[in-house]
Amino acid sequence: MTYPTATVIFLALIAFVILLGFSAARWKAGDMSHIEEWGLGGRRFGTLISWFLIGGDIYTAYTFIAIPALMFGAGAIGFFAVPYTVVCYPILYIVFPKLWKVAHKHGYITGPEFVRGRYGNKYLGLAIGVTGIFATMPYIALQLIGMQTVIGALGIPGHLPLIIAFGVLAAFTYTSGLRAPAMIAIVKDLLIYITVIAAVIVIPSELGGFSAIFAKISPAKLLLAAPPAGSTGAYTGYATLALGSAMALFLYPHSTTAILSASGPRVIRRNAVFLPAYSFLLGLLALMGFMAVASGVSSMPQFAAGFKQYGPSFAVPALVLNSFPAWFAGVAFAAIAIGALVPAAIMAIASANIFTRDIYSQFGTSSRSQTDTRVAKLFSIFMVVGALVFIMVIPSTYAVQLQLLGGMWIIQTFPAIVFSLFTRFFNGWALLVGWAVGIVSATWLVTLNHFAGAIWAFHVFGITVPSYIALATVVVNAGVAALLSLPLNAMASDRAGDETMAVDYT
Amino acid sequence: MIRWLLVVIFLLALPVPFFNQASPTLFGFPFFYWYQMAVILVSAVLTSIVFLVEDKKAGAK
């Protein structure tokens, strides 16, 4: 143990939230054998709990480590997280109260379930559902990696702490369902707010103020590079990355789960007003990457081993250890580790909901009542254990690459889920073909990039327009779906298969 | 349709060439950074206006 005080504080806080996780089953108690109770908290979370839950969902351990790491390593481009988490909220406001209403009316607990009901097409539902599960798996793995980084920074070696943490996570997810992460999210966010506010007060004063920090950043990293002639350069790269990420965000199963667990559409709209508070926090957090540069932690001998093992991801842990007293480093690291547990639990639950409702009950021996929860609970354990095995067997760079692909995949569900809330113009099979075109083209372009980047230099009318692959391919996806819908609807309209009604959407 | 106000958020958050510059600085922050942080606050205000107007209308019905 390199940092005994920090480790004791860290372990105490983790133990506290684990107890909280197990006791959550009794909070606003419901019948846990029912999947709407286990997997959606009975759809009764008010504005405040939803705010913590959605916030805990979006701003994860991986975010806390990776965004500052990107600022530390690559500079200004990492700040795309700010416009990203700005433009996602008008999307939340406009789109997702509608999804809540139709889901509530028809008892849907997942996005793919809505699509299936809308088009009467279980294969489209399957495609959307499988996309969600596959996009979520590497995301859980990345939460584990985030947690591993802070455990490693404390000087605790080996995989055992991680296995214990996630074993416990699987256990309380099993017993308490969505109530567990909802309750823990409150603790997590309070710790994160305390940490970041302390960081932006303490560290700049140690380093001589923000102007001194920015002065230490090389001009190439301080701003985006000006585009060369004939190209829109980093400008479109930055903007499309922000917009595409925002479009994808609430399509992730864990985000949908958090949204659908709200007690009503008004709660969701209200949260679109209050959630930007987290974006502000994220902006400050991103700047911790620059603080790490300015503080010179990367050249301090005591952190050399950490940087060697974790790369730029070690910037925040090193900065925290260097700038704060040991006990506070314990608090900060606990905040990050709990920031892994909350979204990982929601991700496991969300995937389990999808597996149960969109795969097992549709394609297996079906029964929608009691067995639902049993299957879901077992699948949630499978997701957590799967992620654990994943990061122990496969190098962490693959998890990052798969996460990159996951973002490209999940956005391909945008036409089927989002457009379908506003129009029944599309044909279900056309959406399925559009989805396939999107998945294949996005995967292909990422492969051509050797999994190293999310941006591709498209050539449009003689101009080079570097863009986020996910955004470009979802446009193709939507175009294909729209074009094919005309002939397919003319030949054999699937409108009769729609189990929802126009009034469900108003 | 007060909702169109939300479009302004996209217009403020995404014009990269406009805000990709160092000056003017504010509290030591280059323009690129403080502008985008300020957009967060403005977007929250715009969304709350939309929310309050729509909420009032829904209540009046």
The total of helices of chain A stands at 23
Q: Please state the CA-atom Rg of chain B, rounded to the nearest Å.
A: 15 Å
Tally of distinct domains of chain B: 1
Helix content of chain A: over 70%
Strand content of chain A: under 5%
Strand arrangement, major sheet of chain A: 1-2
Largest sheet of chain A: 2 strands, antiparallel
Mind explaining what this structure looks like?
The complex is a heterodimer of chains A (506) and B (61). Chain A is an all-alpha fold and 506 residues long. Chain A has 23 helices and two strands. Chain A has a single domain, classed as Up-down Bundle (Sodium/glucose cotransporter), CATH 1.20.1730. Helix content of chain A is 74%, strand content 2%. In chain A, strand 1 (455-460) and strand 2 (463-468) form a beta hairpin. The model of chain A has no long low-confidence stretch (mean pLDDT 87). With 61 residues, chain B is an all-alpha fold. Chain B contains three helices and no strands. Chain B has helices at residues 5-13, 16-19, 31-60. In chain B, 34% of the residues are buried. Chain A binds chain B through residues 76, 79, 82-83, 85-87, 89-90, 93-94, 209-214, 222-224, 226, 234-236, 238-239, 242-243, 266, 269-270, 272-274, 276-277, 279-280, 283, 287, and chain B through 3, 6-7, 9-10, 13-17, 20-22, 25, 27-30, 32-33, 36-37, 39-41, 43-44, 47-48, 50-51, 54-55.
Question: Helices and strands in order, then pairings?
Answer:
The complex is a heterodimer of chains A (506) and B (61).
Chain A: H1 4-23, H2 35-38, H3 47-58, H4 61-74, H5 81-106, H6 111-119, H7 122-153, H8 160-176, H9 179-207, H10 210-215, H11 219-222, H12 233-249, H13 253-260, H14 265-274, H15 276-295, H16 304-310, H17 315-323, H18 326-363, H19 370-393, H20 396-410, H21 414-422, H22 428-448, E1 455-460, E2 463-468, H23 469-492
Antiparallel strand pairs in A: 1-2
Helix pairs in contact in A: 1-8, 1-9, 1-18, 3-9, 3-13, 3-14, 3-18, 4-7, 4-15, 4-18, 5-12, 5-14, 5-15, 6-7, 7-18, 7-19, 7-20, 7-22, 8-18, 8-19, 9-15, 9-18, 13-18, 15-17, 18-19, 22-23
Chain B: H1 5-13, H2 16-19, H3 31-60
Helix pairs in contact in B: 1-3
